[in-house]
Every structure is written in structure tokens, then in C-alpha cells.
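sanity check this:
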Amino acid sequence: MSVNELPNKFYIDDFLINIKTGEVIYEEKSQVIEPKVMALLKTLAQNPKRVIAAETLFEIVWPQAIYSPNSVRRNIALLRQALSDDDKRIIKTHPKRGYSLDSEVRFPEKKAKALSKKSPLIKYLKLSLLLIPVFILISVFFSLSDTSKQVSLLNLKPITASNEQERYMQISPDGRFMAYIQNTNQPNKRKILIKDLVTGSSWPLKDTLNAYTYLAWDSHKNALVYSCQDEKGISFNRLLLDAQLKVVSEELLFSRSDITWNSLFFIDKRQQLYYLANQNSSEHSRNVSLYRHNLESGQTEKLLKPNDYFKPYKLALSPTQTQLALVGFNKQALSEVKLLNLDSNDVVSIGQIDHNWYFLTWFENNKSLLLSNGSELKQLSLNGDLTTLNYKSYNFLVYPQIIKDKVYFIEAKSDQDILLSKLKQLSPPQKIINSNTIDKAAALSADEKHIAYVSIKNGYPQIFVKHIETGKERILFENSKQEFALTKPVWHWSGKRIASSVNNKPFIIELESNRFSIKWLNMIIGEPIVWYNKSDAILYVDKKTHNDELVKFNLTTDERTTLKIKRVHDTFFLNHKDELLSFVKGQVIRHDSDNTLLKSPYLFTQIYPEKNGFYYQYTQNGKPLINYYDYELGVQNLSSKTEEFCAKFCDQITAVSDNIILLKSKHKSADILVLDITSKSTKVRGSL
């Protein structure tokens, strides 16, 4: 029998081999092996118990290549790993002679025919064997009617441990290698690297730094596909790899100038690439579409269009590659998980969770999903049962991936502090809030006496207020539900009210001398931006629709007025007459007239609004500077001392008022970690 005559499916011991799909299946668990590894397995399976020289194997599997014994050894090792052949019983090494497959090769159709020719006694035995599970089931039902698997996570280990920031990673299907993207100190300049999880060695795949966003293994081609962002849009590129996972060549698969953001993506066996994308450079705008791109034909399909009922932000391809799991926000701003059948395009919901954002991946049994809200891991079965697992992170747990009973993830760490300097003296900034965790989103009250800010010092975000002179502080928003997307506090001009939102649920904090109260704005879903000066109203970004439109909400009448303006990258604020201004692409624009409010030959980089005008940061002759624009008087030049101050600290500034500058200092790192997944049966008694 030649290799080509081997049937598509056959058994080696209890492992079902599917040549067509590249799968090795054992106890309903499937893993896809590389094409060269499968070709090697086919060659050995054609000649069971026969010793084949390494040179002969190489000639068959790599017919056009120059002989490399390392390629044979590597693929034999991967094959043994796929067959759990740690003791080298299935594939035997014969020193200086070659390799042999020492296990029996069986074919499903022949097995069936052999059973059909057995005596009547065999038929009775078959019937008895069929009845045995029935009796067992009945007896079990009387005593322990439900047996399920309880998942536990243990043995936390680092895969990377450095001061660098790992941005994204993907483990190869065989569990041997990890491809990952690493940030550098330069904005949007990142590396792509490979790490051998057995030897611990790592190497860069590309010499050039770029704004790489996500990547995925393309096992069908022994390649790695990455997405990249630039001023022209998004491109997808493929790196063809050799047996040592070094780049042989690179090709552009496709590029799109009509999108500026893409999600992580997946490639199935049919060379279909699935991803989410939009034109707003962020998943947080959520007006995304789901696309399927055929890498062979080049055809792109839009599987889901933006709508207000379900806004997906993450996706995961099932182990069987028949379904996509999508997590997104529904009409009530709750994260909901849905399954998309890739053959019929039918969508079904399997459960609502809560208002948090989630990352997700599939368990290998194809029966449940692993979810992460950044702090906790949860298991969601396809029947909707949700269980919190026994692992909690006080950092930020993102992009989990399950391979071979292990869950890999990135744990991001950050220490961010709030600093203060006096504008008139331009003194060196001093730390005013430092809790050895994330203290951010500092907002200064109009009277410059208080700072409201968000801190994760208690393990989840809360809003605090601190008196600058006395140092006295208190919690204003305790966040008892421990939700994670808490937005920047927005001061009312009176200094007695603060607006914010948690997971797109807006609220108002009413401040009094010794106490405060919280009022939830249950009639709207969105993120407050600024208070109006001349009416009891706020401007907010509406998250109930997919357009991220700006809406004015009157707190007295509950009236909503849509401004028919979408927020993309703009910074929106109101002037002293409640006219809407925006800072975008280095210009300040007044929306009622579309006039440019501030014209300058220099590039504006940041804007810091206050009641009577705004401070702005700009670059002149390569130097950062700060100036002030008064709504009545126009540009007011500041002291020449700002140039020296800006040279050191301008990139840290978050707010500027008449006398105070708020700044931030932060240190970030992110490592890749792994946990072992174990499961044990839990039994629940029942009765008939």
C-alpha cells in the first residue's frame, strides 16, 4: 500500500488519525498536527513495524529539500508528543538505523466488517454490552444522578518574566511553541518573537519594529499570520516558517484601508480567517462587524453587521472549528455570549453575564468556555451554567488560551501615581497620590482644593476625593459590585457634584460638607464627558447605540437631546457659553459653525479645558510647549519658564488649571503565565 492509498481515517492504538483534517483524536479530545508531521506519520503507518532510515523519511516528506536530520528529529518529537508517546513505545528509535511504528494500524471500516462476520454468540455479547450501560445508568440515577466535572487551576508558573510588556500571545496547536508580540519603549513599535516552551530558548521572527496588533498560527501552511496597523489602515501578512520555525518568506495576504481597528483573529482548516473590525480604531466604540476572509480565494464576507441589540467585542473559534463564540454587549449593556454556527450562520445565545468586559477561549472538550473579566476566571457551559474558578488576579488577566490542559494568559501589572506642580512656580512635580497600584483619572475641582481620582488600591476600581492642603481623603464610590470599567470623575463647576459611570451605567455623586449620596441615572447608558454651565445637564457618549453619539441629558426633566455627532478620537468640551468644542487632528473646532477656533502653524498635541478657556500643548521646532487660550481674549502667552518644565514633564501632564498642574508617572510590565487545568467529578444525589 502506498501513502496515497492509506484511508483518510485509521487507528494507531486508541488514537484516531484523520489525514484529511490533520487531527489526532483521543477520548474526544482533538489536536491538529502540522502537515509535515502528518506526512511523517502517514509514511510510518504505511509500513508498521518496519525500520525506515531517517534519510528515507526526509526524502519522502521533504522531497525538494536538502537533507536535514534535525528536521526529522523535530517532527518525530512532535509526533510522539501528539501520541503521548513519552516512553517511545509507539514510535521506536533504532540507533543508526532509523525509526519504526511499533503499534498496530487499524481501519474503522475493516473493524466493522470483521464484527459483522462473527457468530451469533458475538451478537448476543454485543447486545449484552449495549444493555450494561443501561443497568449502570439506572443504578447510578438512583444514588448519584448527576456527575459533572469541577475544574481547578493550580501550579502557576511564569513563561516570561522581565520588565518588558508582552502584548499578545498564541500557543502553537501542539503546545510546543509560543508566538508573542512585545511592546518596546517606542510608541506603536513592537516585536514578534517565538519561544520554545520545552528548551526555553526564544528568538525574534522579524528584524523590523512595527505596530503589530495580533497573530495566529496557520498550521495548514506551517506559518504565522499577523495583523499590523499603519496610517493606511490594517494589513494581514503571513510568515512562512521552516522546520526550526525561522522565517523562510513573507507575503501580504490582504490589506484594508476602510478599517482602523481589528480584533484578535482565528484561522480554520479551510483557510478561513475570522475577525472583528471597525473604522474607529477601538473595540470600545463597538460599532464592529464580523468578517470572514478566505485566504485562498481572497473573498471577504460580512457575517454580522453593527446593530444596537448585540455589539461583539471578542471572539473565539471552537476546537471543532464549527462555531464562533462571541461575547458582546446587548441592549441592556450586559455582556452576553452567543454562538455562531459557521455553516448555517445561525446565532444562539448561551447566557448573559454582567456589565463587565470579558476575554474568552474554549475548553478543549468543546463543551464550555473560559471567561476572564481581568480579575477572575469563570467557566461557562454551553447550557448556560456559570462557575467562578479558583484563581484570582490582583493585576489584569487578559487573552487566556487553553492548550493541552493548560491555560496560558497575560498578566499585566501597572504602578501609576498622581503628581502635582504649581503652574506659576513651575516647581518639580511631587507625588500627591501613591498607593503602589493604579491611581489614575485625576480631576481637579473648580476651586482647586480637591482631586477626585480612580484607584485600584483595594483590588478593584473606586472613586476617591483628596483635599490637597490637608491630605485628607475619603471614598466617594465604593463599587460594591466590584465592576471594572469605571470612568474618569467629572466635576460640576460648583464643586458639589461629580459624574461618572461604571460599565456604562452613569451616576451622580452629590457632595455635602460631611456626607455624600449617589444617584443612578438608570434611564441612560453611557459615559459622562462634561457638565453644562447654564443648565442642569450633562453631555455623555450614548452606549445604547453602536454609533457612540453625543447626547445632552437634562437631569431635571430627564430629556435627552441627540447632537448627531459621533465620538471617534475627538476630545469634546464646552466653552463658557455651552457651545460644543472638539480637539481633533491638532485643531480646536467649534461645532455650531465648523470654524477652527485656534489657528497656529504648530502642531497641537494635547488640550486641557477649564471654565474660561483651555490650556494646550504644542510642538515648536521639536520642543513641547504649553500656552493658554482665553474664550474672550484669545491666546495668552505663558511664562518662558514653561519651555524648561515642558522638556522634562510635558508628556506626563493630565490636567492644567489656573495654578495647578496634575501629572502622572507610571511603570508597566506584562508577563505570560500558565496554570494547569485539573478536573474531578462532583456528584449530586437524585431520585426517580
The two ends are 55 Å apart (CA to CA). The first helix runs from residue 35 to 46. Residues 588-658 form one domain.
